[in-house]
Every structure is written in structure tokens, then in C-alpha cells.
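Page 47, continued from p. 46.
Same chain as before, 189 aa.
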Amino acid sequence: MVHKAEPDAEAAIGGNHELPIDPDIRIESARKTQAHTPERRRHLRVLAAIAVGGFVGGLARYEIGLAFPTGHGTFPATTFAINVAGSFVLALLTVFVLEILPPTVYLRPLLGVGFCGALTTFSTWMLDTDRLLGAHHYGAAAGDVLGSLAAGLAATSLGLTVGRAIVAHRERKRGRVEEREPALTRGGA
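Result:
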């Protein structure tokens, strides 16, 4: 007897088993994004935003690497700093996109996926770690892996905290303005 797997209805989103590319992009079938439709054109514009962001982020990554080269067998401080800074920027950007800026389909793909994705680099991090291991610098390799994880998480937490503090400051400031406006309206009439 052959057992046929049943679809997992709980794992599906609205009966669709495809995962979204980005949480603020609605789920679309492959047929819609491949046909010549408005959805296809929007999909291509999102891909173009990612490409532009990736070009700028990759160029920035390359230029920073040229400006601050890491010697063979030494701690990869440039990659470390870029990845930690990218973690902060992506976290801050996430708060801004979700809570401050007007809704847009293109900002997160442009800056989050494109720019930050190309600026930061998992592959270079692992290649640097492998080079340290190959040079028998085990402590530096462990420091690179563990330090990058810890510093990246701390930078992400800091980016979220700073972003939320900015949101809270804007809301307090907006609340003070709204409090003054009714008072001026009552007294000025």
C-alpha cells in the first residue's frame, strides 16, 4: 500500500503553499508574475529596486574593502565592521519602514534586500574564517564567528532600540502639537 501525503492546510497561507518574497509584498502565483500583467510589471520593478540597491551596496562594500584592506592571516576587521554596521542599518531601516515612512513596495527591497544584502556578506565572513583556520589562527577564527554573531545581534538590538526611540519621540512631539492646537482653537474664537 502506497501512502499519499495530504496537503497540510495549517501550513498554507490562504490555501497557498508558496511563501512570500517579502512580508509587505502580497503573495502572488508564479503564473501572475510570469504573464504580461500589471502584477508582472510591478514584480519587475521590485526586482529592479533590488538590483539598484544591490549595485550601490556592492560598490560600497568593494570600496570599503579597498580603503581598509585586511592582511592575510589577520583578524578580518573590515568584514566584521561592515557586517555589524549592516545589522544596525537593517534593523533601523525596518523600524522606519514599518512605523515612520509612508507605505511603499520598493523601499525594503531597495535598501533592505538590495543595499544591505550586498553590503553585508555571509560568504566573505565564512571565507575569512576559513582563511584564519587554514593559517592555524583558531582563536581569531572563533573570535570572528562568535564575535560577529554577538556584535551583529547587539547592533540589531541597538538599531531597533534607536528606531523605536525615534518613533516614540515623534509620537510625543506630535502629541504636544495636538494638545496645543485645541487650546488655540478654544481661546482664539
